[in-house]
Amino acid sequence: MSKKVLVLPGDGIGPEIVEQAVRVLDQVNSQFNLGIEHESALLGGAAYDETGSPLPDVTLEKAKASDAILLGAVGGPKWDGLDMSVRPEKGLLGMRSNLELFSNLRPAILYPQLADASSLKPEIVAGLDILIVRELTGGIYFGQPRGIRTLENGEREGFNTYVYSESEIRRIARSAFDAARQRNKRVCSIDKSNVLEVTVLWKEIMEEVAKEYPDVELSHMLVDNAAMQLVRAPKQFDVMVTGNMFGDILSDAAAMLTGSIGMLPSASLNEKGQGMYEPCHGSAPDIAGKGIANPLATILSVAMMLRYSLGEKDAANAIEKAVSDVLDQGLRTADIASEGSKTVSTSQMGDAVLAALKA
Ligand code: NAD
Question: By CB atoms within 10 Å of each CB, which of 68, 107, 156, 307 scores lowest?
């Protein structure tokens, strides 16, 4: 049976970078005989302009019927004045909630060729390849009750609820262990079990799920130590799994270890393994239409899609190797250019990745 991919170019640099990523997808599709079919739909500001909604019903229908979704980025100043309910970002959030994309996979990979781009010493980060698995639809960002109330003495008090059910923990644990099986088979679960009961349960369920994965090694670390270790010796990690808030913070810190936002892909998965794949960066309106955006994060998102939703590890590896080869050749888009490198445009970078795939 053929596999269906929905392509959502979105706004700003979205269409430019997605165009290159789709060329790469088409290339591996024929090279590896994958039988993938893809079609495009509107999301975000582009969808609002055309239909009055940032997430048209037809886009959602197509998304539900697909095995995976490839997204560029949404948003831009053109739509900043719109009512919150129709802002481009609403389209993205609507996709996440409608498809129940609870597992956010954020790799932090630093190609040795780009080690100088990091703010850390090259020997600490060169060759870094870690994956942060963040729970995306629960925890303190969604827990009830929440709000700001006035106490009897007239003072106001803000409050939120940090809550995770066993089933929510179990499914994110499985997502992390499954991802680890595609990598180096080590999961480090991040908690604050010395203070927070919710993460005592988190830790307990992680141990329980680990028994289903005897081939994967589980360890635990407190979140404050994890933050220190990420900047002290980040290469010690393979997969880190954590809740929504800790993951939000740790994944941004890990992203910055790599020094270039134009290189980082991401995935959001649901229980069926269906996923939405997108670069970590936004729509970069400041450079949209100039042909200088870095398409590599989106191209690497295609590799993630092949690995995590479509079960095509060899094709995923081939794309990642092609990207590495292109960097070896000294080719760089402007955002990652350095002394001695050759600066190329968005489409030239796409050409180079295609050539490396065919080589
Ligand atoms: P941004 O990531 O779009 O841009 C930050 C900086 O990084 C800019 O200087 C930009 O030129 C540069 N940059 C980003 N991607 C690049 C690439 N591929 N190649 C070269 N340079 C790149 O973040 P922002 O400026 O805060 O947000 C711009 C718009 O994107 C906003 O409307 C925001 O809401 C939206 N946004 C969307 C998503 C998403 O769709 N998932 C995520 C973040 C921001």
Answer: 156
